[in-house]
Design a protein that fits this description.
Blueprint (H helix, E strand, L loop, with lengths): L5 E4 L8 H11 L1 E4 L5 H9 L8 E4 L13 H5 L7 E4 L9 H6 L3 E3 L6 H17 L1 H9 L3 H14 L7 E5 L3 H14 L2 E5 L6 H7 L2 E3 L2 H7 L2 E4 L13 H6 L4 E5 L8 H10 L2 E6 L10 H4 L4 E3 L8 H18 L16 H6 L2
Parallel strand pairs: 1-2, 1-3, 3-4, 4-5, 6-7, 6-9, 7-8, 9-10, 10-11, 11-12
């Protein structure tokens, strides 16, 4: 029996940070790979204490290790009291009830920071696309039809705008959207307005000459382009719905690199078909990986395959940060020694007894 704290590894083996894994991570922890492939058998393994009193859960790849489904109250209740942290790759965490983890005195840490550059770049591209109608132009070029090429060439110049001077309405002002706001302000000359439940500090606002709105409704009324950067939870499901679209300016635009279900898809389709929303860009989709056929048929809608953070740099740092988060939290006897670098559930964790 190893004297080192145990880490339960779910999902595929590491792929990138082998030197750090062997020199730093493996030297500190006894790592066990979960072998189950579905929820019921995983629950039975926890009930039978198959993996003992492990101190951490390690999920280095967000595309694997989800075989047990939702980390809800039922599943979390079977975790041993020795667990200190669930460290996962990826920025999203709608598949885990992080508040219940916090109530069990378990930190949840995500890959925040690793994907900031990639996602903010994706959103910047999408802003350019909805103002300049790049998707319509690309579709026309790919027909290889000279008449369609020429007609679209003429049309684009009459319906497109430079983003400079227009209001970018940022919903959720975290690290990714602050990077995006900086790029849009400095490179594109856009005016930055934002809404968040927590206001940024004065220095950050001054740097971007950003205007804060106390309500989402107030922001929607002034934005020429709305960009979404909120997690998906019970409060943000269908956040941008029929009412929200009705508050937006006629001819305004929307960009979503957050989660598909933050935007009510049927309401978006109606707003686009009526012309009230002139263009949309979606990296994420309501019924992902299924893309709406109606949205896919629209030339004023830019669609990508949830690749906002899809850069090799992101994957490398997701994996590395998951290991570093565990190292920050778990001591040599499995005790708490600190807090993670990227905690998600601080409020619930600190409120627990």
């Amino acid at each position: 029996m190893s004297s080192k704290p145990t880490v339960l590894h779910i999902g595929d083996p590491i792929k990138y940070n082998h030197d750090f894994y062997h020199a730093e991570f493996e030297s500190r922890f006894h790592i066990i790979q979960a072998t189950e492939t579905e929820r019921d058998s995983f629950i039975e393994a926890l009930k039978s204490e198959k993996y003992g009193d492990f101190s951490a859960i390690f999920r280095p790849h967000f595309q694997t290790g989800g075989f047990m489904g939702q980390w809800d109250a039922e599943l979390i209740s079977y975790l041993p009291q020795s667990v200190r942290i669930f460290a996962s790759a990826g920025a999203g965490f709608n598949w885990a009830d992080v508040d219940i983890l916090g109530q069990h005195k378990i930190w949840y840490a995500n890959g925040a920071g690793a994907s900031d550059e990639a996602v903010s770049d994706t959103a910047l591209y999408m802003i350019l696309s909805v103002f300049r109608n790049f998707t319509r132009s690309q579709l026309a070029a790919r027909t290889v039809d000279p008449e369609i090429f020429t007609a679209t060439h003429k049309l684009i110049a009459t319906i497109s705008h430079n983003p400079r001077g227009y209001v970018l309405g940022v919903v959720g002002f975290g690290n990714i959207s602050k990077k995006l706001a900086f790029k849009a302000y400095m490179a594109l000359g856009m005016k930055i307005h934002y809404f968040d439940i927590v206001r940024a500090d004065q220095k950050e606002e001054e740097q971007l000459q950003a205007t804060y709105h106390e309500t989402l409704e107030d922001l929607l009324k002034v934005a020429d382009c709305v960009t979404l950067h909120t997690p998906l939870n019970k409060y943000t499901q269908d956040l941008i719905d029929e009412k929200a679209f009705s508050l937006m300016k006629p001819g305004s635009r929307i960009v979503n690199t957050a989660r598909g279900q933050v935007v009510n898809e049927d309401a978006l389709i109606r707003a686009l078909e009526s012309g009230h929303i002139s263009a949309a860009a979606l990296d994420v989709h309501y019924n992902e990986p299924q893309v709406s056929p109606r949205l896919a048929s629209m030339e004023n809608v830019t669609l990508t395959t949830h690749i906002g953070g899809g850069a090799l740099d992101t994957r490398i740092n997701f994996e590395l940060n998951a290991m570093k988060n565990i190292i920050q939290v778990v001591g040599p006897s499995g005790e708490f020694i600190g807090e993670p670098l990227t905690p998600v559930n601080r409020q619930a964790f600190e409120a627990s007894t």
